[in-house]
Amino acid sequence: MRVIILGANLVGIALAKLLSDEGHDVVMIDESRHAIAGVEGHMDIKCIVGRPSYPDVLELAEIPVADMIIAVTD
């Protein structure tokens, strides 16, 4: 299953880890480079820096093929 998580806060990171560990294809989007840097390289997920509500950012995440979108932004 392909899951897009909007928000790299504690809840988003916990969800990404759980879903990634279960073998799901996870993409995380957050506008904070610092938050994304804390996740990138520690999990087998795709990370995108950008505003989660912007259409061009969602296109980078390949939203048309996503099975689920989880919004946990501040």
Find the count of extended strands (DSSP E, 2+ residues). 4
- The fraction of residues assigned to DSSP E strands is 25-35%
Number of helices: 3
Low-confidence segments: none
Order of helices and strands: EHEHEHE
Output the structural class. alpha/beta
How would you sum up this structure, described in words?
This protein has 74 residues and is of the alpha/beta class. The chain contains 3 helices and 4 strands; from the N terminus they run E-H-E-H-E-H-E. Strands 3-2-1-4 form a 4-stranded parallel sheet, covered by helices on one side.
Sum this structure up briefly:
The chain has 74 residues and is α/β, with parallel strands linked by helices. It has helices at residues 10-21, 33-39, 55-60; strands at residues 2-6, 25-30, 46-49, 68-71.
